[in-house]
Description:
- This protein is an all-beta fold.
- It has a domain at 2-18 and 35-209: TolB, C-terminal domain (Neuraminidase, 6 Propeller), CATH 2.120.10.
- The protein has one helix and 28 strands.
- It has one helix spanning 159-162; strands spanning 2-3, 13-14, 17-18, 22-24, 26-33, 38-41, 47-50, 56-59, 65-69, 80-82, 89-93, 98-102, 108-113, 122-127, 133-137, 142-146, 152-155, 173-177, 180-185, 189-194, 199-203, 209-214, 217-222, 225-230, 235-241, 251-255, 258-263, 266-272.
- The strands form six sheets. Strands 3, 4, 22, 23, 24 and 25 form a six-stranded mixed sheet that branches. Strands 1-17-16-15-14 form a five-stranded mixed sheet, with no helix packed on it. It has a five-stranded mixed sheet with strand order 2-21-20-19-18, with no helix packed on it.
- Strand 6 and strand 7 (47-50) form a beta hairpin.
Amino acid sequence: MxxxxxxxxxxxxFSFSKATDSTINLSLKxxxxxxxxxxxxxxxxxxxxxxxxxxxxxxxNNFDSVASFNNTKPLGNISSxxxxxxxxxxxxxxxxxxxxxxxxxxxxxxxxxLQKINMFDVSVVTSSYDNNIWLFDEIENKIKKIDNxxxxxxxxxxxxxxxxxxxxxxxxxxxxFEGKLYIYSKQNGLFIFDYYGSFIRRYAVDSLTNAQLIDxxxxxxxxNCITILDLHSRKQFNYTYNSINLTxxxxxxxxxxxxxxxxxxxxxxxxxxxx
Length: 275
């Protein structure tokens, strides 16, 4: 097992200058009715909807059903699905510390029992650039990489030692993007590492819900605003939307110039009005 080596001189912590708040007018493009508890969209425009009984329905961009995953009983509730690689879908069952790997047809490729490699409290998982799996172990407070059979490849040092935290680090997402690894904590902000585990910088942006990384922007909900933090310019933009109460939506996703909202009625796809 390799241990990632961190070179630490000081912790880079960036603040953001706040730009003027704006209101954006949106129009409803399409919707798909039903009861769903999660939605993800891959980079090909496919939608993955998780039903209350843990079925996964895959829809194409026209909302035509193209595949489904119906193995709903053995592992209980689906905690998250990772579709960053459309050919390798990761279905994570936090309660059973298990990852199910699916192909693009949502057929099972293999199953990884994390408890067998002594991981009992993993919070987030995602595909890595080299077709392995990144995850965050909240008991050991480490980012780890495993292969598709569950073999440990690399791990970082304990975040509590790295950043001198008194409490455990609770993560909302981990993402592999353009040669860097991003991990976000609602309590501690956004942290960026390289693939060798060297710490690059921290952005002190906390308290965001539904946080996600789109290109080089951190996006999340802050009260009833969409907050966008440009990691290059270090500017913050707050947007409100006409007739949309974000606090009543269980999840939102961005896809190009669209806003996808999951509510009790299903999913709604909005586009910015053009005048």
